[in-house]
Design brief:
With 230 residues, the protein is mainly α. Helices cover 51% and strands 3% of the residues. It has 8 helices and 2 strands; from the N terminus they run βαααβααααα. α4 packs across α6 (142-159) and α6 (142-159) runs parallel beside α8. The two termini are 21 Å apart.
């Protein structure tokens, strides 16, 4: 088991000396909190305390989403200093996270804990997509559209601001137009013509179901959550 740095509280990331992956910190909090429900005391309390510390570290980072459009991706363990790289809004890649993906992880933690800090981060992440669309050179994946749609809907549920629901509809319509076209299956990405599951066709499908239920104001049916892609 890796030890926390006594000064910053961060844990070195596997395979990267002296640094900690921010998305891994958040993912760990989700898993630890979930596991605590199935563990006896005192282990359950230790897991919850560990998760709470991860929450504290993540929420204290200066993500500044409105200015940068992305989450901090990596922090130096010894100093707590974040690097310059931020999560991209649309350019998904293997082994990396987009802003919407990390935003959906924040939705998961907010629903688990009710911590206001996560709610504010969710709103900021959703705001960063209000005027954001894939650029001409961006090869956006279905999973990213799915995450962005679900992120806007999460912000709408907690604020009742119509702008978030409207944006979710814009993104959903664009995804259907650009990725589905006349096919029953979405393309693997904006710049490919084949189909594959690894780029998140299922995540986009779940987001469209969620969108449909919200438009019809159907609350008696619980839509499948879209926060597990991490």
């Amino acid at each position: 088991e890796k030890k926390r740095d006594p000064k910053t509280g961060l844990i070195p990331a596997h395979g990267r000396h002296g640094s900690s992956w921010v998305a891994s910190t958040l993912s760990m909090a989700i898993d630890l909190d979930g596991a605590a429900h199935h563990m006896p005391e005192p282990l359950a309390s230790r897991l919850r305390a560990f998760a709470a510390r991860e929450d504290e570290i993540f929420c204290a980072l200066p993500h500044d989403l409105m200015r940068t459009g992305g989450f901090i991706t990596e922090v130096e363990v010894a100093t707590g200093t974040p690097n310059e790289e931020r999560t991209p809004p649309w350019n998904a890649r293997y082994g990396g996270s987009t802003t919407a993906q990390v935003g959906l992880m924040c939705v998961s933690r907010y629903e688990n804990t009710g911590k206001v800090a996560y709610r504010e981060i969710i709103h900021a992440a959703a705001d960063s997509y209000l005027d954001s669309l894939p650029t001409e050179d961006a090869d956006a994946w279905p999973v990213t559209f799915g995450h962005a749609i679900s992120l806007e809907l999460a912000a709408w549920r907690s604020t009742a601001r119509q702008v978030y629901l409207d944006r979710a509809r814009v993104l959903a319509n664009l995804a259907v137009e650009k990725l589905f076209g006349t096919s029953s299956l979405p393309r693997a990405s904006l710049k490919t013509d084949h189909h594959e599951s690894i780029t998140g066709a299922d995540t986009l499908a779940l987001a469209l179901v969620e969108m449909h239920l919200h438009i019809l104001y159907i609350t008696a049916v619980r839509w499948p959550v879209n926060t597990a892609d991490r």
